[in-house]
């Protein structure tokens, strides 16, 4: 049962509803400071996962090659275009700024590196720790967004559930073919992406997070190859 996904989706919906009720009562300074704290918490989640790696060269290779691939195919732009189409399903907002927040919410909650990473981990190992931790962050993020964009943020939980469940069931099919070493290297790679996501949210550095997503696929191949061809 995808416990982590259920918790995360509910957190986004409740955060969106709560933010809609609070409205303009949350000051800009509070939003800015809370966003920085959310970034630091995401960095902590990433650090816990990074230390699980077995084959450092395999993880580094996958991260560099995966990011290069993501940049080459302009993955960030493709995700943004998809988010724009999904946002068209929601009632029109009053301003471009509000529409922009809805699009950003779709990207963060439906196609973020951390969300994909946590979903694959739960699908392959049943461990929902990453997604439950992410749910806490997503609740606050959805609440902050909804203060400005309204209840459309809560509705983002619908496409989020669809996309995460699709990744979850695909991961369950692949799970039996993934060794413990490959899984640990994958978690390390996902942790690295979560770490830089936190840095981006905290405005430490603007990393190409979306473009790094292919690394989470390539790391299975590099980990397998490194172990099979070089270690033994």
How would you sum up this structure, described in words?
This protein is an all-alpha fold. It has one domain. Helix content is 79%, strand content 0%.
Features:
79% helix; 11 helices; 232 residues; mainly alpha; globular
Question: Helix and strand layout, with pairings?
Answer:
Blueprint: H1 3-22, H2 28-50, H3 56-72, H4 75-87, H5 96-110, H6 113-125, H7 129-149, H8 152-155, H9 157-174, H10 180-201, H11 215-231
Helix pairs in contact: 1-7, 1-9, 2-7, 2-10, 3-10, 3-11, 4-5, 5-7, 6-7, 6-9, 6-10, 10-11
Report the uncertain regions. none
Percent in strands: under 5%
The sequence of SSEs as H and E is HHHHHHHHHHH
| Overall tally of structural domains | 1
N-to-C CA distance: 36 Å
Helical proportion, percent range: over 70%
- Rough outline: globular
Cα-atom radius of gyration: 18 Å
Outline the biggest β-sheet: none
- Roughly what is the average pLDDT, rounded to an integer? 88
* Number of separate strands: 0
| Helical stretch tally | 11
- Given helix and strand content, the structural type is mainly alpha
